[in-house]
Amino acid sequence: MFRFLSHLIFLFFSNLVAFLIASYFIAGFSIPLDLKSLSIIAGIFTLLNIFIRPIIKLVLSPIIFLTLGLGIILVNAILLWTVDFCSKDISISSIKALLFATLVISFVNAIIHFSARLSFKKAL
């Protein structure tokens, strides 16, 4: 239970940082920079990643397989669009902004998870 909770908290803060970076660099992708709105957006995205992402990956597994894993970008874009649909605090103005924000958020999360995994292995 503690491992799941710590993973959930880590994923939440990782998404929070990724949303901040994406809103800074991507034109057409905007979020309010107050902590409450940012926390709500990161929380919704974290919960979608934990509960809905496996279902979407299962449904889109043939596409993910045929594109040699690049279909994961489609999964992440669907989740980000769902957050935009669920929250009034986030604004994505175009498909291009959605795609670039998806790429930035995925890249930032990958870097954070990779560096955390390396530091955890060094600690052991």
TrEMBL record:
- The residues forming a coiled coil are none
| Protein name, entry field | Phage holin family protein
Instruction: Give yes or no: UniProt keyword Ligase.
Output: no
* Classification via PANTHER family: SLR0284 PROTEIN (PTHR37309)
Provide the species name. Candidatus Wolfebacteria bacterium CG03_land_8_20_14_0_80_36_15
Which residues span the membrane?
7-31, 37-56, 63-83, 95-116
Which InterPro entries does the record cross-reference, listed alphabetically?
Phage_holin_4_2 (IPR007165)
Q: Which UniProt keywords apply?
A: Membrane, Transmembrane, Transmembrane helix
